[in-house]
From TrEMBL:
Keywords: Signal. The keyword Membrane does not apply. One of its GO terms (cellular component) is cell envelope. This is Monosaccharide ABC transporter substrate-binding protein, CUT2 family. The keyword Cell inner membrane does not apply. Belongs to the bacterial solute-binding protein 2 family. GO terms for molecular function: carbohydrate binding. It is found in: Cell envelope. Its main location: other.
Amino acid sequence: MSTFIKDFIEREKINRRNFLFASAYGLGGAAALGALGPSMARAALTDPTIAWSYRNRTNPYWNEIVSGGEAFVESLGMSRDALTHLINEGSSEKSLADVKAILAKTDGNLALAIDTNDAPNARPVVEAVAASGAYVSTLWNKTDDLHPWDFGDNYVSHMSWSDEGPAEQTARILLEAMGGKGGVVHLGGIASNNPAIERLQGLKNALKDYPDVELLAAEPADWDTQKANQVMSAFLTRYGDEITGVHCANDTIAYGVLEALRAEGIEDMPIVSYDGNPQAVQLVADKKILATVFTNPHWGGGITASLAYHAAIGHFKPSEEPKEHREFYGPTILVQPDDALEFKANYLDSVPTYDWTDFWGPSNGPIVYK
C-alpha cells in the first residue's frame, strides 16, 4: 500500500512539472471569439473533431473517464488517438481558454465532452460552444440555473451523480465503525465543485443521527493526493487522538490520508472514500478502507463523448428529447469488503463492452434540484 501511494504522489509531481511547459491549445494560441450571440447550430456537422476536456490523466478516476472516451472513438472505427485531449490541470481559466482555442481551430466543427472544473465555468464554456455552432455535453459541474434546453441543440446534455445519498451511506458505515462516538474529519474536493458540496452534505446528514460524534474539521483537499496528505498531517498535529474516523471525498484523497496515517504509525483508522478506482477497491478488499462508491467513469466518459458526437452529426436532435435525457444522474454502486473482489473482477479487471448508442441505459433518472 505504502509503495503504491508514494509512487502515485511522485507521478503527480512529475505531471505538474510537465504541465508548466505544456502548450496544448494554451492561452496564447486562441484568437478571441466574437461577441456571443444566439445558437448557430448547423443541420449536422461533417466529421467533427471529438475532444475531451478534463483535469489530468494521472488521477485514476479521470484516466477511466478518458479511457471511456477512447473506447467510444474506437467504436467509430477510428484510432484512439483521434480523441483530442484538453488537459486543464484543475484550472478553470485554462479550461475555458482551451475550449475557445479549439473552437477557433476547428471553426466550430467540434463535439466536446467536458468537466468544466468548477460550476461557474460551465456557462462561459457552453456559451462559447453554442455561439460557434459546435456541440457540447458536460459532466459533473454546472450551476443549477444552467440547462441544456436553454441552448437549443448545441448544449446536448449534462450528467452528474446523486452524491449526497451514497456519501451518507459511506458516512454511516464509518460512524458505525467508530462505535457511534469520537471525532471525524472530512477532506473534500474543490470547494465549488458540485460533488464536493454533496459529499460533505452526505456526511452532515448522517451525523444528525450520531450526537456523540463531533465533526472536528472539514477542509478542501482539491481532489489531490499530495494536498490530502498535507491536510491530514495538519489535522493529526492539531487534533491527535481526537480523530477516530476520516471521511474522504474521493479515493485519491484517501491515498494521501493513508500515507499521512502510516507516517504516524496509525494502521487501523476507519476511513471511507468515493469513486471506486481499482486501487481503492483493492484497499477495500484488504480492509484498509471501509467502503468506496463506484460511479462507472468508463461509461460516463464514453457516453458523454457519444452524446455530443451523435448530436453533432444529426443522429438525434437533443431539443426533441425529454428533459430527463438532457440532465440525468449516472449510476452508483457501493463497494464494501465482502463484495470488493467480485466487483473488481466484473467491472475493473475486465471492463464491460458498452453500446455507445444506448445513451441513457445505465443512467439513474433525472437530476433533481432542491
